[in-house]
């Protein structure tokens, strides 16, 4: 087991204990994850638009700017993760017709849904310049991050 994964989860939990809002927590997560895991070349959150839950809206991200700031849930790997309600791993984006290109350097991608109160509210999206970059450990790590983030969203709902 790569020690960086539990260390990152620990740091996120510690930051979350004092975070005042979800935006600053997203910003902390994308920066920490991208810095600690160099093969995670683009790390970002997409959240379902509260006013139109058929569209994902780009939140905090770390990496090259993307033109895909709003993605319908019927499009892209990002949309597929919402539509399927599960993590989508693409080992070679060039061979997946659903793929929406952000960078010509991207070779593989993983998208992990975030659930709160039993519903998908958004997702964590990671791109790598390496082919087949994301294995079972990455998947487990990112699903743990998404679970943590989802629980914090539930707490913020409960506090309202
Ligand atoms: N590749 C994604 C679009 C978002 S970018 O990776 C930042 C997709 O196919 O949905």
Structural account:
Strands 3-2-1-6-5-4 form a six-stranded antiparallel beta sheet, sandwiched between helices. Helix 1 (about 5-20) packs antiparallel against helix 2 and helix 1 packs parallel to helix 4 (about 135-160). The protein has helices at about 5-20, 20-35, 75-85, 135-160; strands spanning about 40-50, 55-60, 70, 90, 110-115, 120-130. The longest helix has 23 residues, at about 135-160. The chain has about 160 residues and is of the alpha+beta class. The N and C termini lie far apart (about 40 Å). The chain is globular, with a radius of gyration of 15 Å. The protein contains four helices and six strands, in the order ααβββαβββα. The chain binds methionine sulfoxide. Methionine sulfoxide (SME) binds next to strand 1, helix 3 and strand 6.
The span between the termini is 39 Å
Number of strands: 6
**Topology order in helix (H) and strand (E) letters:** HHEEEHEEEH
Q: Looking across the biggest beta sheet, what order are the strands in?
A: 3-2-1-6-5-4
Helix share bin: 25-40%
* Low-pLDDT segments: none
Overall structural class, as computed from helix and strand content, comes to alpha+beta
Continuous helix count: 4
Largest sheet: 6 strands, antiparallel
The value of Rg in angstroms is 15 Å
Named once each, the bound ligands are:
methionine sulfoxide
* Strand coverage percent: 25-35%
Chain-averaged pLDDT? 96
Q: How would you sum up the global shape?
A: globular
């Amino acid at each position: 087991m790569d020690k960086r994964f539990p260390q990152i989860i620990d740091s996120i939990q510690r930051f979350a204990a004092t975070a005042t809002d979800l935006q600053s927590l997203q910003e902390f997560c994308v920066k920490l994850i991208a810095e600690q895991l160099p093969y995670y070349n683009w790390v970002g959150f997409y959240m379902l638009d509260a006013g139109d839950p058929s569209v994902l809206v780009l939140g905090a991200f770390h990496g090259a700017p993307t033109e895909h700031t709003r993605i319908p849930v019927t499009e892209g790997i990002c949309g597929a993760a919402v539509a399927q309600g599960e993590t989508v791993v693409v080992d070679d984006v060039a061979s997946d017709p659903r793929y929406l290109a952000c960078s010509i350097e991207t070779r593989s991608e993983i998208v992990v849904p975030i659930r709160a109160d039993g519903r998908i509210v958004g997702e964590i999206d990671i791109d790598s310049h390496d082919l087949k970059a994301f294995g079972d450990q990455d998947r487990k790590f990112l699903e743990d991050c998404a679970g943590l983030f989802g629980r914090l969203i539930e707490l913020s709902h409960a506090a309202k």
